[in-house]
Structure formats: C-alpha cells, structure tokens
C-alpha cells in the first residue's frame, strides 16, 4: 500500500516557501498500522518532522510535483493508495534562484500562483491496477458532509475521510475524529480518539473493498 503524509512546500526562493500546517501524524499512523497488519508499505513523506516508522519504506518528497511523481511510481504495483498528505493546490509561478530582497520604499510585488496537479483525482481516474482502492482526505470547516460528498464525486476516489477543522482540531493534534464517506454511499463515523484508531478503520474499509477473505490487511 502507498500512503502520502505531511504537507507539500512550494518554494519561492532558496529560503522561503508556501506551506501548510499538516504535521504528518495521521499519515504516519496509517503507515504504522498497515505495516503492523502485514502490508508492504511505501510512505511518501512530505516535510514531516517525524521518525521513520519501523518496517516502512519511506520516500521523502518536498513539492506537490515531486509528490505526484513519487505517488505515480509507487502506485504502479499497489493494492491501495491513501492520500493523507495536504497538497498545495497552487505553487508560485516563478522560482527566484536568489533570495528575494526588499527594496527601500517599495511595496512588495504580488506573488503569482499556478495550479498544481490534482494527484488524488489523477490516481483515481487512471487506476494502475484493477481493483486498486484509492482513499482521499478532506478538511472542511462548513457543511462538512455535503462538501465531502461533492468532493468524493469530483475526485473519483473510493473513500473520503472527512475531518472538520477548526481551532485545536486536526492539525498537529494527537487525536482526530472523522466521517469516512464511501463511493458506494456508505458513511462510517469514527469517534474522537487516537489517529491510530481512525487509521485502523480506514484499513478495515480498504480491506473490505479489496474483497479478500484472508488478506494481510485483516
Ligand atoms: N490532493 C491532491 N492533489 C492536490 C490537492 C489535494 O492529491 N493538488 C488530495 C489530498 O491529498 C487529499 C484530497 O486531495 O486527499 C483533498 O484535498 P483538498 O485540498 O481538500 O481538495 P480540493 O480539491 O483542493 O478542494 P478545496 O476546494 O476544499 O480546496
């Protein structure tokens, strides 16, 4: 199985980037629990300051474009792909090879952005193996379930883990709560608890969809 974790960083110059608050803890919990269940795990780690989980193949990545390449490579022979990473939707249109300096008395130039590839939509739309299960994550602040359903359809994944975000919720926390929406209409609530508990429920639902009777993920 392939798990992406952490948050991408989109460089502006050699010392600055556009990033996000993802700690990587949920993705690392997914990798650890999958390995404990006997799966062969590739963890694509985007800027997470966490120790490598034992028995997991860890591939460090920086930007969304690097993550896309790593995901597509690893997904080629994977039974499941779980996109827990917070991927920047946009990156700076240009990269300044030297540090951007402030100019006396001048307002800064606006930062132009361009779209990054949508990795989850791409992996969902062109499955590397038949029966491959693809899982996305969504962080929503309002109309959590309705927005989640719309996003699940738009991305084309099999499962979407929907987190409600707000102050002290989700980012950097040790605990999490979520609703996992299935493309088959299913809805699984996971009560507030350790990120490992949410991870176990994700793998239960993935294993169900892989349709195995005695798989390594059970
Ligand atoms: N994702 C991705 N590639 C991107 C952006 C997001 O693969 N360029 C994946 C994330 O890893 C996550 C899911 O898509 O699994 C949800 O991303 P989100 O940013 O919430 O979705 P958006 O389509 O950007 O929707 P929004 O309008 O809420 O930003």
Radius of gyration (CA) equals 18 Å
Shape: globular
* Biggest sheet character: 8 strands, mixed
Percent in helix:
25-40%
Number of strands: 12
Summed up:
This protein has 218 residues and is α/β, with parallel strands linked by helices.
Secondary structure elements and their pairing?
Elements: E1 2-6, E2 10-13, E3 16-18, H1 25-36, E4 42-46, E5 57-61, H2 64-75, E6 80-83, E7 90-92, E8 113-115, H3 119-125, E9 133-140, H4 144-155, E10 159-164, E11 175-182, E12 187-194, H5 195-210
Parallel strand pairs: 1-4, 1-6, 4-5, 6-9, 9-10
Antiparallel strand pairs: 2-3, 7-8, 10-11, 11-12
Helix pairs in contact: 1-5
The chain binds cytidine-5'-triphosphate.
Residues 64, 83, 85, 87, 89, 116, 118-120, 136-139, 151 line the site of cytidine-5'-triphosphate.
Describe the structure in your own words.
This protein has 218 residues and is of the alpha/beta class. It has helices spanning 25-36, 64-75, 119-125, 144-155, 195-210; strands at 2-6, 10-13, 16-18, 42-46, 57-61, 80-83, 90-92, 113-115, 133-140, 159-164, 175-182, 187-194. Strands 5-4-1-6-9-10-11-12 form an eight-stranded mixed sheet, with helices on both faces. A two-stranded antiparallel ribbon has the order 2-3. Strands 7-8 form a two-stranded antiparallel ribbon. The protein is globular. The mean pLDDT is 93. Cytidine-5'-triphosphate is lined by residues 64, 83, 85, 87, 89, 116, 118-120, 136-139, 151.
């Amino acid at each position: 199985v392939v798990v992406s974790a952490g948050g991408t960083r989109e460089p502006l110059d050699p010392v600055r980037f556009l990033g996000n608050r993802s700690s990587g803890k949920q993705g690392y919990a997914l990798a650890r629990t999958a390995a404990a269940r006997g799966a062969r795990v590739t963890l694509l780690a985007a800027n997470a300051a966490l120790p490598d989980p034992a028995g997991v193949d860890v591939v460090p990545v920086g930007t969304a474009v690097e993550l896309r390449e790593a995901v597509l490579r690893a997904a080629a022979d994977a039974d499941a792909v779980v996109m827990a990473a917070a991927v920047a939707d946009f990156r700076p249109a240009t990269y300044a090879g030297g540090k951007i300096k402030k100019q006396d008395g001048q307002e800064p130039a606006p930062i132009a952005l361009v779209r990054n590839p949508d990795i989850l939509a791409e992996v969902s739309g062109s499955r590397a193996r038949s029966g491959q299960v693809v899982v996305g994550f969504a962080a929503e602040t309002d109309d959590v379930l309705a927005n989640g359903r719309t996003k699940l359809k738009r991305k084309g994944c099999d499962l979407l883990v929907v987190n409600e975000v707000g102050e002290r919720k989700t980012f950097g926390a040790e605990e999490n709560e979520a609703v996992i929406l299935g493309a088959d209409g299913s809805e699984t609530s996971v009560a507030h608890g350790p990120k490992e508990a949410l991870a176990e429920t994700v793998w239960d639902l993935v294993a169900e969809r892989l349709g195995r009777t005695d798989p390594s993920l059970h």
